[in-house]
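Thread: "does anyone have the structure for this chain?"

Original post by V.I.:
We have the sequence but no experimental structure in hand. Need at least a predicted one for the grant figures.
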Amino acid sequence: MSFATITMKGRLGRDPELKQVGQNQVCKLAVATSERWNDQSGQRQEKTTWHNVEFWGKQAENVAKFFKKGDEIFVMGDVTSDEWTDQQGQKRTAQKVKGFKFDFVGGNQTQQAQPQQNHAPQAQMAYAPPVQGAPNWAQQPQIQQGYAHNPAPLPIPKAGAIDDCVPF
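Reply from O.Q.:
Generated one for you, tokens below.
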């Protein structure tokens, strides 16, 4: 089995759907990406493509918690295909993205409405081992809480001080 990895930035077309699957959770998203260009006559054209995206485990819970319809999202994931036979006996195929990383793009309306303070927790990406019961297609990254801070600028070294540190 081979995977094609995709990176996309788009908007949610509906609120995330969080479901329990056995002892695990899955969050399903509809993400719209748009391409804009001018045709030969100079008319502005736009093509929107919809992507079905899934996140599993703790990530699924966090996506459902922090995103809603209309929010921008950055997604990295593997493109996979589901095949089945419909009621008329036709073989059907649908592609979806099994996300292994997501991030906020420019903040959503909820985040923009609340002013951030220097020590307010912010979500940070970190990779974790796969969640038990989740598909074995990729590691499941988790959102971890960190603290934003504005560190003081580093002091500028005095002339000649740098030469002592350089090993060559």
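V.I.: this helps a lot. Residues 124 and 144 are 6 Å apart (CA to CA).
O.Q.: and The longest helix spans residues 57-66.
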